[in-house]
Design a protein that fits this description.
The protein has helices at 25-43, 56-64, 66-78, 111-127, 145-148, 154-176, 195-205, 216-221, 226-236, 257-264, 289-293, 324-335, 364-384; strands at residues 2-4, 10-16, 48-52, 81-87, 134-139, 179-184, 210-215, 240-245, 247-251, 275-279, 282-286, 304-310, 320-322, 344-347, 388-389. The protein is an alpha/beta fold.
C-alpha cells in the first residue's frame, strides 16, 4: 500500500510474511497464493506491499538461479503484490516448534550473517518495482548479549562485517541504480537493546546505508519514549531506514493474581518473550515471560511489558492491554511531521499462532481477516496524519 506524504514523497506500508514462515522457495510461492493475495483481495486493493521473509535456503535458491528470481518477480506482479522491504532478522527455522534463542544466530560476528544479508540485498534490488529505487532490510541488532559481551574481539568483528556490507551496497547501487539500506533492529536482551544502544555502533560504522529499524513493540517493551528516542537518532545522524509497526503486551498491575493468570496464557514454548519493568533504579528484566510470572525475578509494583507482538486491532482482554498508544505516538513522529523520518512501514505481528488458544485464527480465512484488519488500522492512522492513500 502506498501513501502520498504532504511533502510529496511516497510512504510504503506492508505486512511481514514471517507470520507464515517457509524455508523453501516453494513455500514462499505458497505464501503468496494462500495468504498474501487473499489479504490484498480483502482490502479491495489492486496492489499490496509485503515485507518478504526469505529464509537461507529460499534466498540461496533465488541467488543461484536467475530464472527462479525472474519467475518470483513475475508472480509477485501477477498477484498484485510488491516488495520494497525484506525481514532479514531470522536466518532459518522461524517456523520451528521452538525458536527462542536460535533466532539470534548467526550473528554479526559470523560470516554467514554477512553472506546472507548480501544475498538479500542483491535479491531485493531485483525484486523492487520498476518505479521504486530504494529498498530496505531489517536485521539482527549485532547479536544476543552473550557470548558477545565476553568476547573482546566481537565489536571489531561486527563493525568490520557491517563496513564490508556497506561497501557492497555501494557497489550494488552503482550496478543497479537501486539503493538498498540495512537497519539494525534493537531488541530486548540483545547487544543493541534500545535505540540509544544503537547510536555508538552505527556512528562507528558511519555509513548512510546502515541505519536502524524501529520496531514499536521492542521500543515499548524497553519503556523508551518514542519522541526522545527518535530525536536522539536524528541528532546523531542515524537514519531510520524502516519501522515495524507492532504492539507489546502490557500489564498495569502485575502484582494481582488475576493479572499473573492472564499473563500465563501468553507464556508459550515457541518464541522468546522478554519481559521488562521500569523502576526507580532503572530497567529490570527477564529473558522470558514465564521467568517473570514465576515470581521474584521482577519487581511487581510497576507495570510490566512483554515482547509479545499482539494484533494491532485486537488488544488482549482486561486486565491486560497492549502498547498501541506507543505505536501511535511513534508513528506520529515518524511520518506526521513536515517530512517523513522513514518511508517504509511494516506491520509485523508474527505471533498469531502463538496467541492463547481461544485467540488464535483457526483457518487461513480467519488469519487473512486478522492481517487485513491490522493493515486497515495502520492505514487509518496514516490517513489521520494527513497522508493520502494512493491507488
Amino acid at each position: 500500500m502506498r501513501f502520498r506524504h504532504p511533502d510529496g514523497s511516497v510512504v510504503h506500508l506492508s505486512y511481514c510474511t514471517n507470520v507464515h514462515p517457509a524455508e523453501t522457495l516453494d513455500g514462499v510461492r505458497a505464501q503468496l497464493r494462500d495468504h498474501c493475495e487473499p489479504v490484498r483481495r480483502r482490502l479491495g486493493r489492486d496492489r499490496l506491499g509485503i515485507g518478504l521473509w526469505l529464509a537461507r535456503d529460499a534466498a540461496r535458491a533465488l541467488t543461484n538461479d536467475p530464472a527462479e528470481l525472474r519467475a518470483l518477480r513475475a508472480e509477485l506482479d501477477s498477484r498484485g503484490l510488491e516488495v520494497v522491504t525484506l525481514n532479514g532478522f531470522p536466518y532459518e527455522g522461524f517456523g520451528a516448534d521452538e525458536v527462542k534463542y536460535r533466532v539470534y544466530r548467526p550473528d554479526w560476528t559470523e560470516p554467514d550473517r554477512l553472506a546472507h544479508t548480501t544475498d538479500l540485498a542483491r535479491l531485493l534490488a531485483a525484486l523492487l518495482p520498476d518505479d521504486v529505487t530504494e529498498g530496505t532490510i531489517s536485521t539482527l541488532p549485532l547479536a544476543w548479549r552473550t557470548p558477545y559481551a565476553t568476547d573482546p574481539g566481537a565489536p571489531r568483528t561486527a563493525r568490520t562485517a557491517l563496513t564490508t556490507l556497506a561497501q557492497r551496497l555501494d557497489a550494488l547501487a552503482e550496478l543497479t541504480s537501486k539503493s538498498i539500506r540495512i537497519g539494525l533492529e534493537p531488541e530486548p536482551g540483545c547487544t543493541v537493546e534500545t535505540t540509544a544502544d544503537a547510536i555508538a555502533p552505527l556512528t562507528d560504522v558511519g555509513h548512510e546505508r546502515i541505519g536502524i529499524c524501529v520496531d514499536t513493540c521492542h521500543l515499548a517493551t524497553s519503556f523508551e519514549d518514542p519522541g526522545t528516542a527518535l530525536d536522539a537518532l536524528t541528532a546523531a545522524g542515524i537514519p531510520v531506514v524502516k519501522s515495524q509497526l507492532s504492539a507489546a503486551l502490557h500489564a498495569e498491575h502485575p502484582h494481582l493474581p488475576e493479572v499473573r493468570t492472564a499473563l500465563a496464557a501468553f507464556a508459550e514454548p515457541r518464541f522468546l518473550h522478554q519481559t521488562r519493568t521500569r523502576t526507580a533504579a532503572g530497567l529490570r528484566g527477564t529473558d522470558d515471560l514465564d521467568e517473570a510470572i514465576a515470581g521474584g525475578a521482577l519487581p511487581d509494583s510497576t507495570p510490566w511489558r512483554a515482547h509479545f507482538h499482539v494484533p494491532l486491532h485486537a488488544p488482549p482482554a482486561p486486565p491486560l492491554t497492549s502498547t498501541l498508544p506507543v505505536l501511535r505516538t511513534a508513528l506520529t513522529r515518524l511520518v506526521g511531521g513536515a517530512a517523513p523520518l522513514t518511508r517504509h512501514l511494516e506491520v509485523e505481528t508474527y505471533t498469531w499462532q502463538a496467541l492463547p488458544a481461544e485467540l488464535r485464527p483457526r483457518t487461513r480465512t480467519q488469519l487473512a481477516d486478522g492481517i487485513a484488519a491490522e493493515l486497515t488500522l495502520a492505514r487509518d492512522l496514516l490517513v489521520d496524519l494527513g497522508l493520502k492513500e494512493l491507488p
